[in-house]
Amino acid sequence: MNKRKWTKEEIEEYRKIHGALFYCNKEDSNFFIPKAYGIGLTVNWANPITWIFILAIILLIVVRKFL
């Protein structure tokens, strides 16, 4: 399966079919995507970079807490 960046229209169509609460699309290589509601960006939870990013933030918080 070849990953590619999906367009905004494809993302909106995917959300109509699968729901808009969390965006988790293994076929989409986008890290940041437009939010379903409101202004801003959210992340693709199926992208491994997202999990690395979240773990790095948590690690940074923990390290700052104990130093």
From TrEMBL:
This is DUF5808 domain-containing protein. Residues 26-51 form the DUF5808 domain. The chain crosses the membrane at residues 45-63. It comes from Clostridium omnivorum. The lineage of its organism: Bacteria, Bacillati, Bacillota, Clostridia, Eubacteriales. It holds the Pfam family DUF5808. Keywords: Membrane, Transmembrane, Transmembrane helix. It comes from the Bacteria.
